Amino acid sequence: MFSCSPSEQELFDEGIKLMESGQLDKSIGFFDRAIEKNTEFIAAHNAKGVAYFQQEAYDSAIASFTAAIRLDSTSYKSFFNRGNAHLEKKSYKEALIDYNYANGLDLQQVDVYYNRGLALLGMEAYEDALLDFDMALQANPNQPLALFNKAKAQLGNNDPLGALETLAATVEVDNRNGAAFYLLGVTQMSALGMKEEGCANLKMSLSLGYTEAKTWINDFCQE
């Protein structure tokens, strides 16, 4: 319930409630009304960007996060959020710049290391990506996505043995990861000639719905 003239905070709070319930268009409307009342309402700009991000409207999200940054360049959050939007667009260099700013503003944010690792992986900067994935894994050694992407970076860095060890750890903590079983099987067969073990992992991958495994199974695992 609103008064006749709701405050900027009331409008913002209602926008958050709507966003949390998945009513993204309506939430953006409330954030806009809050910003009309106070153009320097940083949290409203940032929240509006998050709503656009959830709609996969990444250019609009970037514009909102940029507005928040112009008002306050001392908080890691808007840089991190804008980096995520760039990452979704595969604009890896732009994402990296934002993640570097976010990291400089708050060294304790583990998600920054992981997401920056993804940007570096996209840029094929494998050694730097490994450093970031290792930083993320220091905080949580059993994080399956960090392990999986670390293995990708190790393969890109011509370290198949290291990748095999990391992929084994990945499927140990996430035995539903069809992509990890696939990469494990392919690496076992192509790097070490481990046909039996590789085929077993490829078949596990296929059973988990990872259909790319079917070609390898047909070509190399038929009796």
From TrEMBL:
<dbReference type="Pfam" id="PF00515">
    <property type="entry name" value="TPR_1"/>
</dbReference>
<dbReference type="InterPro" id="IPR019734">
    <property type="entry name" value="TPR_rpt"/>
</dbReference>
<dbReference type="Pfam" id="PF13414">
    <property type="entry name" value="TPR_11"/>
</dbReference>
<feature type="repeat" description="TPR">
    <location>
        <begin position="110"/>
        <end position="143"/>
    </location>
</feature>
<dbReference type="InterPro" id="IPR050498">
    <property type="entry name" value="Ycf3"/>
</dbReference>
<protein>
    <submittedName>
        <fullName>TPR repeat-containing protein</fullName>
    </submittedName>
</protein>
<dbReference type="InterPro" id="IPR011990">
    <property type="entry name" value="TPR-like_helical_dom_sf"/>
</dbReference>
<keyword id="KW-0677">Repeat</keyword>
<keyword id="KW-0802">TPR repeat</keyword>
<feature type="repeat" description="TPR">
    <location>
        <begin position="42"/>
        <end position="75"/>
    </location>
</feature>
